[in-house]
Amino acid sequence: MTLIAPGAGSAAGDPLEGPTATVDEHGTSLWRGALQRLRRDPFAITGALIVVVFVLVALFAPLLAPYAPAGAQWGNQVTPSDVPGPSADHLLGLDAFGSDLYTQLLFGARQSLIIGVVSTGLGLAVGALIGLLAGGIGGWVDVVLMRVVDVLLSIPSLLLAVSVAAVLGRTSISVMIAIAAAQVPIFARLLRGSLLAQRNADYVLAASSLGLRRRTVVLSHMLPNSLGPVIVQATLVLATATIEVAALSYLGLGEPNPTVAEWGRMLVKSQNRLETDPQLALLPGLLIALTALGFTLLGEALREALDPKFRR
Q1: Smaller CB count within 10 Å for the chain: N or C?
Q2: CA distances (Å), 178 to each of 130, 150, 163, 185, 191, in order?
Q3: What is the b/e burial string over 42-62, where b = at least 16 CB atoms within 10 angstroms of the residue's CB?
Q4: Model-level pTM greater than 0.90?
Q5: Which fold has domain 41-310?
Q6: What is the pLDDT of residues 80-96, one digit of tens each?
Q7: Nearest to 200 by CA among 138, 122, 107, 247
Q8: Where are the transmembrane segments (predicted)?
Q9: For position 11, what pLDDT does the model report?
Q10: Residue ranges per domain, the chain?
């Protein structure tokens, strides 16, 4: 947009008048501005790189792994007091069962990614539905749903996940449902709060004044403007889900199939060899911490980029 100073083009001798001045103003959308800030944030770049590497390794594990997962054909090389270390055939050595440790770590990333993404998606879908009904309808629906959410929030998330997994049994599906159940109340309260904050916005009052139905206003206008914090929370929950997958496996509630590589179970099976072969526990533990760090850095940076208070 071009602004022309008052008096432009008049006599040059008038002190109140001067040459033409132009100012260019270019507006940017919320997400485009957030992307520009993320590109200048070193923590966001670091987190994004970790997440991208983790996803690529999980997706292309069959191509990157030199052997099939849980291949125990080298079991005769493992003794109760010694596990073979790195060699020309095995980049990181073997694990306690005679499987290639490098292969197990690669396929463990795939299992963690699948469970983390599916459980986060389930928690987001159910929690968003509850939050949408509570914040969009209000009244007694809001009161009833939020009291249920308050009960769920009073239970520690890991304890709730353990309880659900114990009831459903030891399967990957039960782990996904257990982790999702622990995240439902978080997404529900967050979306409800965002919808309530939008309720008295000018665009909502304008849409209502035009005669639009309440459902149309909520779904077409309020909901799209309330999803930013929920998307950021989903990124942070992926970090928590990665840790909870490992925790449930560590407690014996994960996938029982021994041929399925999983970082948490690798920690459990290596705890009796910490003194002699610490790499068996250190490597999967380091990958769990590094993956959670990547999602946390990206989520925190995204939250600051979308929050007007942090814009600079």
Answers
A1: C
A2: 18, 18, 8, 13, 21
A3: eebeebbebbeebbebbeebe
A4: no
A5: MetI-like fold (1.10.3720)
A6: 777 877 888 888 888 87
A7: 138
A8: 42-65, 113-141, 148-167, 173-191, 230-253, 280-302
A9: 43
A10: 1-30, 41-310
